[in-house]
């Protein structure tokens, strides 16, 4: 990409902000070294990496590179035979541990995040280095005694010698004979040797060697002759300890130096992953989305009738925002250029946002080709340009004796020499800085030239002649930035298809210019120009009215949706209350039914003792069983018949609420009828009807299944289930067999178990009722040894007790 353009469009400021999201210096340097690519496949790969990282941070918000450090200097030093300090060795160790942790974490995520997993494949650390460093260096950076047997021996001898030496000196210090001649009753060190502070006037009283004296000369630091041998031994052991420590550090450094290339490769992988995570975090803060990149079509061999040029670029940006401006105050713009439009001519007042529009389009194109998501609505599209050239700002140069006009012309000449149909050219204030008539003629000539070469060009200008040129020339479109005559301030809105209005006279009149001067000025203007301006004013006025009407309609629609949502909530509450009342009634009926059954059993026992026939009770028992079936029938939720328009189709990564659990999670998998939601560390499988977007919008229209659904892991970290397991539709979490004959019930049960197993359900509920227990016994006999059944048990009291069997399916 053109280096001057990158500076002009403030691309490097974007990289500086991106670097601020990185975790360590290596990835920050990598972020600042990013450049846009002209290879569309490389650009799409980068965008895919960033989108994967965005989705991953939604479901794995704690993901980071751990304790990775910048070990480039340490590895280079070791590779050249240098000896690393303990702190450098610890940095290498922590970086290797971080790489190992990332590699293990992505082993379970390879299917969901293939691009990121490919980067993590560089991370397996060289074996043995972590253990070697851990054995020799403590977490505080101290060399351990166990680093080598020789070091352990030296340090043991050093401790014994030092203890003997200090004990002897301490006895001398506490000896009453020596107390008057010592400056202080302590043992200190000079040049690695232990000494006593002797008063200078008693120099000859103690046989010793003078090593130092105080600044005042009143104190001599002396080594008594009786401890010289012990001091010598202590010093020799200190030097031996130093040499052995250096040998250990050199040995560890040699291991790192031998693995330098592997370590550099691993560090590059960590930095690459961290930079991609930084791109995702930056995108989240910008509320950015992934654009659709278009490839330039090949040249036409046989143009269509009436087509004189090959199809050009595509620029379709919805609600695009400049990424460097305050997101709270920046005005979003819509820019539309179809393949048959090659030039956009933007007119309007000064400080109205024309230059910001040019910079926004150019900078977003650079960001997309860098792999950064862009601050625009989802669905925005843009072509992948071979290069982008921009001439924006004051090109005046005192050193080169160039005026503003000369600087612009020099830059435009350079751009025209390098531009081609696959590049984007951005020209600010074309034809300015010179005589208006000549400037307008030159601007038209330049536009005609680039149009003839099919080069996509964005232009701002104040020349009215270019408005006419854009209106009358195929392939060129007018655009304007708006100006509020009431507040005398620009609104920064961009309107494609309409030229800007000349507001000079209106502004002058609003500011208090005498009417006679305004009238005189209008008389100097061509009547045709005045009629065109009046017509343009009317078009803008009608467009403003249409915009206001649309805003009012949108507001009314939002209010209607809010009322509908409130109605659904209230109806849900009513239905919950209904279910609660019915449940209470059913509980009371069950209690009374149990009493009737107990009375029947007592009556049967009494008749049996009296040797009386019990056939008379059979009809009563049958009626009781029918009542029991009705009582045990679950209370179904009634869906309110209130249609709510869906905002958009649900997508993987959306935050949703599971209404039955009243909890929020992240959507991780979709089928035609069911979805999988991650809630904390758990994955929950539920019907789409139970979900609503976290914002409160129910999912009225079921979305189509994703083309490559995410595999369904269990609540633990088990390996992912193959994608094929999502193709079978779920038969639901329970089957009701009550009221069926045994053979009918067993056929239905067999079909249900097959469907539940294929759809990957972890468990199901089989409702067979209590009654005489015959159906329950038959069902449980079938479940014994069934290939799809891992285990089963009776339901809890809340689930229906012995009237329900809960079956855990094999996975």
Structure notes:
It is a single chain. With 811 residues, the chain is α/β, with parallel strands linked by helices. It contains 21 helices and 23 strands. The strands form five sheets. Strands 10-11-12-8-13-14 form a six-stranded mixed sheet, sandwiched between helices. Strands 18-17-16-15-19 form a five-stranded antiparallel sheet, with no helix packed on it. Strand 13 and strand 14 form a beta hairpin. The longest helix has 83 residues, at 527-609. Residues 396-401, 642-647 and 700-727 have low confidence and may be disordered.
Quick structural overview:
The protein is α/β, with parallel strands linked by helices.
What's the number of extended β-strand segments? 23
Average per-residue pLDDT, rounded, comes to 80
Q: How many helix segments? A: 21
Strand order of the largest sheet: 10-11-12-8-13-14
Helical fraction:
40-55%
Oligomeric description of these chains: single chain
- Radius of gyration over alpha carbons? 41 Å
Topology at a glance:
Layout: H1 3-8, H2 11-19, H3 25-32, H4 40-59, H5 72-79, H6 86-107, H7 114-120, H8 129-136, H9 149-174, E1 188-190, E2 193-199, E3 208-213, E4 219-224, H10 228-258, H11 260-286, E5 292-294, E6 315-320, E7 333-337, E8 343-347, H12 354-370, E9 381-383, E10 387-391, H13 404-418, E11 423-427, H14 436-452, E12 456-460, H15 464-472, E13 476-484, E14 489-496, H16 504-510, H17 515-523, H18 527-609, H19 615-632, E15 655-658, E16 663-670, E17 674-679, E18 682-687, E19 691-693, E20 734-736, H20 742-758, E21 763-767, H21 774-783, E22 789-794, E23 804-809
Parallel strand pairs: 5-9, 8-12, 8-13, 10-11, 11-12, 20-21
Antiparallel strand pairs: 1-2, 2-4, 3-4, 6-7, 6-9, 13-14, 15-16, 15-19, 16-17, 17-18, 21-23, 22-23
Helix pairs in contact: 2-3, 3-11, 4-11, 5-10, 5-11, 6-8, 8-10, 9-10, 14-15, 18-19, 20-21
């Amino acid at each position: 990409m053109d280096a001057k353009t990158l500076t002009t469009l403030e691309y490097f400021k974007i990289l500086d902000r991106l670097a601020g999201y990185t975790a360590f210096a290596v990835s920050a340097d990598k972020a600042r070294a990013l450049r846009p690519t002209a290879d569309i496949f490389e650009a799409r790969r980068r965008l895919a990496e960033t989108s994967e990282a965005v989705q991953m941070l939604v479901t794995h918000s704690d993901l980071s590179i751990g304790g990775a450090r910048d070990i480039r200097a340490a590895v280079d030093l070791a590779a050249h035979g240098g000896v690393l300090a303990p702190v450098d060795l610890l940095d290498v160790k922590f970086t290797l541990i971080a790489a190992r942790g990332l590699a293990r974490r992505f082993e379970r995520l390879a299917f969901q995040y293939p691009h990121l997993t490919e980067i993590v494949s560089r991370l397996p650390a060289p074996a043995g280095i972590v253990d070697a460093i851990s054995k020799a260096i403590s977490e505080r950076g101290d060399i351990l005694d166990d680093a080598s047997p020789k070091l352990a021996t030296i340090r043991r001898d050093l401790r014994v010698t030092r203890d003997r030496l200090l004990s002897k000196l301490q006895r001398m210090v506490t000896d009453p004979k020596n107390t008057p001649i010592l400056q202080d009753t302590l043992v200190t060190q000079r040049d690695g040797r232990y000494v006593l502070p002797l008063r200078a006037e008693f120099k000859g009283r103690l046989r010793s060697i003078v090593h130092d004296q105080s600044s005042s000369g009143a104190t001599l630091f002396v080594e008594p002759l009786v401890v010289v041998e012990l001091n010598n031994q202590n010093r020799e052991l200190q030097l031996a300890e130093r040499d052995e420590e250096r040998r250990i550090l050199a040995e560890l450094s040699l291991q790192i130096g031998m693995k330098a290339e592997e370590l550099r490769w691993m560090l590059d992988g960590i930095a690459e992953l961290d930079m991609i995570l930084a791109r995702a975090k930056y995108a989240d803060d910008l509320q950015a989305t992934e654009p659709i990149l278009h490839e330039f079509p090949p040249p036409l061999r046989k143009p269509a009738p009436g087509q004189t040029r090959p199809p050009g670029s595509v620029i379709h940006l919805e609600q695009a925002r400049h990424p460097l401006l305050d997101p709270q105050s920046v005005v979003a713009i819509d820019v539309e250029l179809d393949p048959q439009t090659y030039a956009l001519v933007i007119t309007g007042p000064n400080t109205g946002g024309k230059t910001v529009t040019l910079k926004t389009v150019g900078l977003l194109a650079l960001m997309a080709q860098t792999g950064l998501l862009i601050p625009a609505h989802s669905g925005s599209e843009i072509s992948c340009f071979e290069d982008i050239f921009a001439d924006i700002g004051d090109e005046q140069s005192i050193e080169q004796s160039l005026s503003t006009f000369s600087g612009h012309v020099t830059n435009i000449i350079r751009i025209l020499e390098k531009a081609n149909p696959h590049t984007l050219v951005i020209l600010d204030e074309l034809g300015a800085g010179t005589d208006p008539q000549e400037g307008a003629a030159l601007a038209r000539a330049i536009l005609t030239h680039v149009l003839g070469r099919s080069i996509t060009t964005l232009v701002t200008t104040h020349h009215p002649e270019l408005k006419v040129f854009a209106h009358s020339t195929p392939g060129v479109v007018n655009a304007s930035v708006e100006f509020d005559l009431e507040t005398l301030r620009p609104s920064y809105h961009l309107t494609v298809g309409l030229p800007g209005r000349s507001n000079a006279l209106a502004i002058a009149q609003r500011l208090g210019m005498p009417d006679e001067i305004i009238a005189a000025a209008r008389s100097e203007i061509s009547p045709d120009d005045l009629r065109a301006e009046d017509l343009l004013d009317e078009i803008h006025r009608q467009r403003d009215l249409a915009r206001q009407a649309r805003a009012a309609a949108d507001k009314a629609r939002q209010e209607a949706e809010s009322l509908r949502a409130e109605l659904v909530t209230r109806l849900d509450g009513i239905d919950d209350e209904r279910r609660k009342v019915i449940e209470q009634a059913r509980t009371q009926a069950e209690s009374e039914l149990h009493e009737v059954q107990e009375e029947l059993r007592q009556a049967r026992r009494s008749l049996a003792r009296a040797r009386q026939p019990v056939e008379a009770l059979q009809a009563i028992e049958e009626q009781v069983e029918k009542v029991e079936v009705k009582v045990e029938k679950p209370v179904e939720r009634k869906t309110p018949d209130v249609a709510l328009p869906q905002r958009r189709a649900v997508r993987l990564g959306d935050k949703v609420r599971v209404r039955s659990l009243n909890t929020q999670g992240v959507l991780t998998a979709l089928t035609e009828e069911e979805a999988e939601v991650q809630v904390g560390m758990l994955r929950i499988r539920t019907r789409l009807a139970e979900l609503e977007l976290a914002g409160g919008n129910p999912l009225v229209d079921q979305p189509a299944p994703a083309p490559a659904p995410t595999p369904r892991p269990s609540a633990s970290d088990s390996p992912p289930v193959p994608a094929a397991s999502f193709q079978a539709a779920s038969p639901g979490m329970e089957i009701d067999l009550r009221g069926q004959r045994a053979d009918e019930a067993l056929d239905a049960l067999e079909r249900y178990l097959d469907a539940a197993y294929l759809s990957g359900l972890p468990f199901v509920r089989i409702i067979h009722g209590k009654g005489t227990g015959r159906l329950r016994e038959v069902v449980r006999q079938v479940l014994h040894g069934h290939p799809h059944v891992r285990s089963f048990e009776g339901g809890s009291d809340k689930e229906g007790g012995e009237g329900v069997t809960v079956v855990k399916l094999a996975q």
